[in-house]
Every structure is written in C-alpha cells, then in structure tokens.
C-alpha cells in the first residue's frame, strides 16, 4: 500500500479504504488525560496569554470547541473514540502499570524500555493543583467547563475530575 510510504500523519488525509486498512493493521493505543489537568498543564506551560487561570479558562470557553487549540480541545473531537476501536486506553497518572502491560503484550522487555514513573506523585500534585486552580473559578465557569468537556467526561473514566461534579 502506498500509504505506508507517505509522510502524511492525519487520517483525514487518506480515503476511507486506506483508513480502514491502516486502522485494521495497527495496534491502536489512546493516551487520555483529565481535561481539567490538560487545562492546568497548558496554562502552566504559558500556552495562553492570560495573566490568571480564571481569565485563561474564560479565553478557552470563548474559543468554543470548533476554534479550540489542540492543547485544550475535547479529546473526543481529536481522537474519535466512537469511530475508532482502540485496543488500549492508557490513563495519565497510571503510565507505570499500563505501559508495562503494553510492552509485555508486545513481547518487549519492560525493565530496559520504561523510565521510572512516579504515578503517585503525579496524581497527588495534580490533585493539589486542581484544588487550587478550581477555587479560582466562578460557579458559572465551572458549569461551562463541565459542559465544554461533557463528552470527554462521558467517554472516559474521569470520575475524580473536578469537572465531573
């Protein structure tokens, strides 16, 4: 197939037959992260020009889902989990155990390929950051964010997300 030798990486650049052939021949792994954690990370990396987290969230909400940056766009619109049957879904915060399982399934040596993950520390840090950042938001912003990410919250098990309430 010529698609094996092309530089294109977006599925939308291929026709339906090529897409089905590719998706049928690969092990599909989806990495997902709590949408509120994605917002925090984007804000802390300075990807928004807002001076406060609250004003950054307002900018995100004002952008709408169609004009949203890939950094905060809802995952269901980026990875199409309803159309693509992923073989594995790896949750951020559980990389250590889940990646080890994936590598073993692929017949690879886990010890030599995996860096040391500190999932517990990552989860604790994001829990603390979430509490701090969430407290900066108005009740209206919290409600709008939950609505903005409603499909992500329905599609993936983000039960401890601050946006799930």
Automatic annotation (TrEMBL):
GO CC annotations on file: Golgi membrane
EC number, UniProt record: 2.8.2.-
GO molecular function, one term: sulfotransferase activity
Topology class, membrane: Single-pass type II membrane protein
Cellular compartments annotated: Golgi apparatus membrane
Transmembrane segments: none
Keywords: Carbohydrate metabolism, Glycoprotein, Golgi apparatus, Membrane, Signal-anchor, Transferase, Transmembrane, Transmembrane helix
Stretch forming the signal peptide: none
Location, primary (coarse class): Golgi
Enzyme superclass (EC): transferase
Domain of life: Eukaryota
GO biological process: one example: dermatan sulfate proteoglycan metabolic process
Family indicated by similarity: Belongs to the sulfotransferase 2 family.
Protein name (Swiss-Prot/TrEMBL): Carbohydrate sulfotransferase
Name of the gene this protein is made from: Chst8_1
